[in-house]
Amino acid sequence: MSRDHCRRLACVFGTVTVTRTAWRGRSMNNVCPLDADLSLPAGLHSHGLRRLAVTEAVRGSYDQAKEAIDRRCGKVLGKRQAERLVVEAARDIDSFYLARVPMPATASTALVLQVDGKGIVMVRR
What we know:
There is one protein chain. This protein is α+β, with helices and mostly antiparallel strands. The protein has helices spanning 33-37, 47-57, 62-73, 79-89, 93-99; strands spanning 2-11, 14-22. The chain has one domain (2-99). Helix content is 37%, strand content 15%. The chain has a two-stranded antiparallel sheet. The protein starts with a strand and ends in a 26-residue tail after the last helix.
């Protein structure tokens, strides 16, 4: 067991060092139970920084996204890293939309329609 196991984490506040306890066994990788409690990602970049990279990348180019992130957070992310984070975030899109395929309606399915009447032009004849 190592009580002062350190790890770097790039986040929207800059690069920080996270110190926690690591459990070790012979010929095994370190296990840090606190990583799950802290919701630490497997890589260097935090979830907030990943979200920011995606948000900025969809607004324009990767160069513009990197510049916006640099202005807000400092130099915590390179252009290739931003590209990789955006591609990684988009990895599950196809499975997400396949899971949202609507089921066929049956006689017991409720059909709901809401109408407020706004925006309908009434013409006298």
